[in-house]
Amino acid sequence: MTRMKHDSKGSNTGFSRRQMLQRAAAASVGLPLVQTLTAGRAYAQGQTSLPAFTVPTPVFSLAERNRRWAAVRGNMAKPGWNLDAIITAGSDALGNNARYLTQITIQKYSQDAPAVLFPRDSAKAVVAHISGTRHVEEWTHRLESGRWLSDGKLVLKAESGSAALAKLLAAEGYSRPGTRIGLAKLKGSRFDPEGLVSATWLDRLKAALPGVLFLPIDQFPPQVGNDTGPIEDASMSKSAEEQDVIRKSVAINERGIAAAIAAARNGATRQAGLWWACFQVMYAGAGEDVIRCSIGFDGGGNNTIGDPTDTPVRVGQICNQEISAAYQGYGSQINHAFFIGSPSTPGYEYYRTAIELLAKVHQRAIAFIQPGKTTYGDFQANNEKIFTEFGERGSGVNTHGGGIGFLSRPRQSAEDNLVIMQPGHTFDFKPTVTLDRAKTKDVGDKNRPVQLGESILVTDKGAVRLGTRPLVPIATHGE
User: Fold this and answer.
1) Of all helices (H) and strands (E), which one includes residue 141?
2) End-to-end CA distance of the chain
3) Section 442-457 average pLDDT
4) Which whole-number Å values give the CA distances from 21 to 57, 64, 143, 145, 316, in the listed order?
5) Tens digits of per-residue pLDDT, 300-353?
6) Do 62-236 and 240-465 fold alike per CATH?
7) Residue 228: which residues within 8 A CB-CB, separation 6 or more?
8) Does an H or E element contain 132, and which?
């Protein structure tokens, strides 16, 4: 496939995978939004009109880079860590730690993830090994003028492998016995407890640098208070710039759910029709791979594990979903169960009662949060209390991290429940309820689960929703 090249004026030549996806999206049939349908017809007629598409150019400022780096370095200097440097491994395919430190992400199946040397000494440059000259050229273009490469503190090299990294570590003075180097994703992370570091790569580093200590930096569970590790601890508290990015991600998610609802209204007959309508809106809105697009009927939103299926769309179904775009790598999941049919369709009253209950749970849960005092365990216990007061039982993972990839703690768990909510924390609150059948009877043999999820930002005064849609019942058709 031809690679995009930048000419001296900064324009592009060649044909990229992303362009191909744009054109494929424009030519697709059965899309739910009027604007997209119009653009699709125009394309089919040979015109140049295309649906809006976001090109994912890095947006974070130099000040934001310096804020992150200072926070991570402050954590590295703590007595419990006392790290001389941190490195990320190319075998961590998602590369979220590297992206947090550099903004650089490598398209999957293209090359290894960036191997980043992040020194504790701020006088030293941060060096990213991104194998392949093409990647260095492209990311130099994206991060140059006025951006993260502008002051020489971030250096990109077309290098890869343990030998190149060992040579760099030695050249930078990290070969002395007793040097402490933190290694991201070595072990103990929330979703990868056994780590993602190549054993061969690490063995060769150790052989080349005898006496150097390579230490895990992922803290699950936290060892002391809120200490979730040097990078994860810093990434939990989002800056104003990061909050803005997450708001954009949430807005894209809301458009995705609206597209799925519109597809049902426009006569989609299979789950795949709703899935594609939602997916293409999220992909076009962010220009990045979608984190989660899982849509199911009459069960949990994640029952389809993120795949399109041939499940029929039928009147009377309750559609749950788990939706998360990735904007600048940042995701934040939302959920909004909707009803296939009209308010007069059997089963709607059950659905309406559940959604209105969940909306009240959201209101009271958000009001409970006191920054600096409330732990995530307190929050979970209070939510259970709220459901009990309403005579119901909630279920599911109520608290789900929102942020860059899997640097998105906290998440509901016995360990992360010890973490104290701080201003700048963002998380997804997505309670599910299956109403007590003795009080509210659904159609069918048993009551169905209903889910309503929202992205929450903790502020210095409390907490707020990041979504803007009304948390109300939605039927796909009128009377």
Assistant:
1) helix 133-143
2) 52
3) 95
4) 17, 31, 24, 28, 35
5) 888 888 899 999 999 999 999 999 999 999 998 899 999 999 999 999 999 999
6) no
7) 219, 220, 222, 236, 409, 410, 416, 419
8) none
* Alpha carbons 139 and 87: distance in angstroms, whole number: 19
Q: Could you tell me the two tokens for 341? A: 């049919």
CATH code of domain 62-236: 3.40.350.10
Task: Give helix then strand counts, H and E, for the chain.
Answer: 12, 20
CB-based contact 67:339 (threshold 8 Å): no
Q: What is the dihedral of CA 101, 107, 111, 113, to 10 degrees?
A: 20
The verdict on whether omega for the bond into residue 410 sits within 30 degrees of 0, i.e. cis, is yes
Say if residues 188 and 182 touch (Cβ distance below 8 Å): no
- Assign 127 to helix, strand or coil: strand
User: In the numeric block, which tokens belong to residue 71?
Assistant: 């926070």
Are the C-beta atoms of 402 and 408 separated by less than 8 Å? yes
**What is the pLDDT at residue 399?**
82
For the 240-465 domain, the top CATH level (class) is alpha beta
pLDDT digits (tens, 9 = 90+) for 203-254: 999 999 999 999 999 876 555 556 788 998 899 999 999 999 999 999 999 9
pLDDT at 51: 62
Predicted local distance difference test score (pLDDT) of residue 5: 41
Q: How far is CA 37 from the centre of its chain?
A: 29
Per-residue tokens: 259: 């597209």
Token pair for 11: 């324009």
The Cα–Cα gap between 42 and 226 comes to 54
Q: Answer yes or no: are the C-beta atoms of 78 and 65 closer than 8 Å.
A: no
- Indicate the average pLDDT of the chain: 87
pTM: 0.86
Q: Is the pLDDT of residue 101 over 80?
A: yes
Is the Cβ–Cβ distance between 115 and 105 less than 8 Å?
Answer: no
- 461 is written with which tokens? 């005064």
Residue with tokens 């791979």: 289
Please give the Cα distance from 138 to 10 (Å, whole number): 11
Angle between helices 17-27 and 34-44 (to 10 degrees): 100
Is 359 in contact with 472 (CB distance < 8 Å)? Answer: yes
In this structure, are residues 118 and 86 in contact, taking their beta carbons and an 8 Å threshold? Answer: yes
Alpha helices in 5-120 (DSSP H): 17-27, 34-44, 62-76, 96-102
Domain residue limits, the chain = 5-44, 62-236, 240-465
User: Which amino acid type is present at position 83?
Assistant: L
Triad 212, 213, 215: Cα angle to 5°: 150
